[in-house]
Design brief:
11 strands; 126 residues
Length: 126
């Protein structure tokens, strides 16, 4: 059974930082691309960032503008999202997800991913 467990959400002031973590169990972590999506009420999930299975390639949504970093630690089966210079539009539920296919380069559509965490709330106070 594949499980993704997120942590690290919370309340931060505008201009502050949050670091999200997602630990994966039940599959070979190093074989699958990982991504972070976010969702706000009434809107579809949008990709924040993804990292390919080897960690050698990353992608960020246009709104990130150099403020976030996605990384992965194979020894801990964990993917991270470091978010800096957060603004009020960063308030969302953040979801970690793992790709459908092994050795997949990664994609920015939710349909590219098969397993999802429960989500963690990030709130930015202005």
């Amino acid at each position: 059974q594949v499980q993704l467990v997120e942590s690290g959400g919370g309340l931060v002031q505008a201009g502050g930082s949050l670091k999200l973590s997602c630990t994966v169990s039940g599959r070979t972590f190093s074989s699958y691309s990982m991504a972070w999506f976010r969702q706000t009420p009434g809107k579809e999930r949008e990709v924040v960032a993804f990292i390919n299975w080897s960690g050698g390639s990353t992608y960020y949504g246009d709104f990130v503008k150099g403020r976030f970093t996605i990384s992965r630690d194979g020894a801990k089966n964990t993917v991270y999202l470091q978010m800096n210079s957060l603004q009020s539009e960063g308030t969302a539920v953040y979801f970690c997800t793992s790709s459908q296919d092994a050795l997949y380069s990664g994609g920015n559509y939710a349909l590219d991913y098969a397993y999802w965490g429960q989500g963690t709330q990030g709130t930015v106070a202005s």
